[in-house]
Design brief:
Layout: H1 49-58, H2 71-79, E1 84-87, E2 101-104, E3 113-115, E4 121-124, H3 134-146, E5 152-154, H4 166-169, E6 179-180, H5 196-208, E7 212-214, E8 221-225, E9 230-234, H6 240-252, E10 263-270, E11 273-280, H7 286-304, H8 312-323, E12 325-327
Length: 329
């Protein structure tokens, strides 16, 4: 089990008055570790302001998407869903030459972002990030994508330690409605007339994508199909300890399944939330589990409201769930 690092907030040290290197945004530029620090101290960057930057990289924000609309869906798109897009709504009006901003699970060549020829922006979610705060890294990428030249990708970089986060840029009242795709044709505006190279790349990506469907009746639950069996993976917003207790109560009472042949098999831990996972028979579709999932949500709500001590059987059930928990982040 991966060991979590404590969540901390470190301020980026500022250079001495008058020694700040010129920059359009006022931040100390990112330089190589062995280069001279831009603050003018005469020391190498790694021994000066780079020391704080290196420390910031190790600091993990446990719930980077907390406070965003549909936190569970952000986590699902980051960790579980192969191909999906969501239109993002910013607090401030978009530049006149940027018609839209779209979040995508992944982009070609694993680009962090892409500014299309028409000016629209695509932001990739399933990328490695340079710091422990995914939200800050994505916000930095988004800001740079808004001013990138049309028709160019945006490269990754280490975001400034005091930079804004997605929570600062996105409208908290804006809709967040994921659209799950069967493939990656959304990469190109006209897939039918794509080049041979692009077509081959799309075919490879599509072949690796697991069929996935977002349930309509409950939040952040995703059905997926694999060769041996199907699964339901459901990102839940409840505190982990309380949720595990509730799941143990339901499991002991025979109420943890989603119908005949289904079984709660464990859970993921991802970005501060818990993701219970059910095995489903091969023939069970996403539509088949819509009603059972809604009924389970009602049972879970009742179990979460119970604060009585767990029985011996419930403690054993909880131990089994804990032993089958896998940390994704």
């Amino acid at each position: 089990m991966a060991k979590k690092r404590p969540q901390t907030k470190a301020k980026r040290p500022q250079p001495k008055d008058g020694a700040r290197a010129a920059g359009a945004d006022g931040h100390v530029p990112v330089v190589g570790a062995r280069e001279s620090c831009p603050c003018g101290s005469g020391r190498r960057y790694k021994a000066c302001h780079g020391r704080a930057a290196a420390h910031a990289v190790t600091e993990l924000v446990q719930r980077p998407f907390e406070g965003l609309p549909n936190e569970g869906d952000w986590i699902a798109l980051r960790e579980l869903v192969p191909a999906a897009t969501v239109e993002l709504h910013l607090k401030e009006p978009l530049p006149e030459d940027v018609p839209s901003v779209t979040l995508a699970t992944v982009l070609p060549m694993a680009w962090p972002a892409l500014r299309r020829e028409d000016g629209s922006v695509l932001i990739g979610l399933q990328n490695d990030t340079a710091s422990g705060d995914i939200s800050r890294d994505l916000a930095d990428t988004l800001q740079r994508a808004l001013t990138a030249e049309p028709g160019t990708p945006v490269q990754g970089r280490r975001a400034p330690g005091d930079g804004v986060r997605l929570q600062d840029l996105l409208d908290p009242e804006g809709a967040f409605e994921p659209v799950v795709h069967s493939g990656f044709e959304f990469w190109v505006p006209d897939a039918q007339n794509a080049t041979t190279e692009v077509t081959a790349s799309l075919e490879r990506a599509n072949a690796a994508a697991i069929p996935t469907v977002r349930l309509a009746g409950v939040d952040a639950a995703y059905w997926c199909e694999t060769p041996d069996k199907n699964h339901l993976r459901w990102v839940m917003p409840h505190p982990e300890e309380q949720l595990l207790d509730a799941l143990a109560r339901l499991h002991t009472a025979g109420g943890s399944s989603l119908g005949e042949g289904t079984r709660l098999v464990g859970s993921f831990r991802a970005h501060g939330l818990t993701v219970p996972v059910w095995d489903l028979p091969t023939g069970v579709t996403a539509e088949d589990v819509e009603k059972p999932a809604s009924e389970f949500a009602e049972r879970l709500s009742a179990a979460l409201a119970t604060d009585a001590p767990l029985t011996a059987d419930e403690r054993r059930a909880r131990g089994g769930l804990t032993n089958r928990q896998v940390t994704l982040s």
